[in-house]
Amino acid sequence: MPNFGTPSHIDLSVNDAESSARWYCEVLGLRRVRRADLENRIMIVLVHQATGLIIGLNQHTAVPVTTFDDRSVGLDHIGFSVAERADLDAWEKQLTALDVVHSAPEDTANGAALVFRDPDNIQLEFWWARRH
């Protein structure tokens, strides 16, 4: 079977690309790369400098559903790894300071998660994996 690596990019559909871009830059520290005004959508490309992960925000002209619901078939959530359990506590303080609604870090047998949502209700998560 051919091999593949970690995700190179994530594209999300959003209601307001400019507003979402500001949120992702402020909350996650992403850097704006470019905006493309296409025939059927506006796309803003962001990058996470530390990992090179690209996040594309797409504001489509035709929108059949206006709010993300992770119970629908498709994407459930996106999890970003953190190196240490203490990083979750630091992110909890950061999200609180930015008035981003979030869960408390929740420990499980396999690690710990801190859950929050973007302006379009897309669930995001910081995840620390427990070493076994």
Write the layout of secondary structure elements.
Elements: E1 9-13, H1 17-28, E2 31-37, E3 41-47, E4 54-60, E5 78-81, H2 85-97, E6 106-107, E7 111-117, E8 123-129
Parallel strand pairs: 1-4, 5-8
Antiparallel strand pairs: 2-3, 3-4, 6-7, 7-8
How would you explain this protein's 3D organization?
By secondary structure, the protein is an alpha/beta fold. The chain has 2 helices and 8 strands; from the N terminus they run βαββββαβββ. It has helices at 17-28, 85-97; strands at residues 9-13, 31-37, 41-47, 54-60, 78-81, 106-107, 111-117, 123-129. A 4-stranded mixed beta sheet has the order 1-4-3-2, with helices on one face. Strands 5-8-7-6 form a 4-stranded mixed beta sheet, covered by helices on one side. The longest helix has 13 residues, at 85-97. It starts with 8 loop residues before the first strand and ends with a strand. The relative contact order is 0.19.
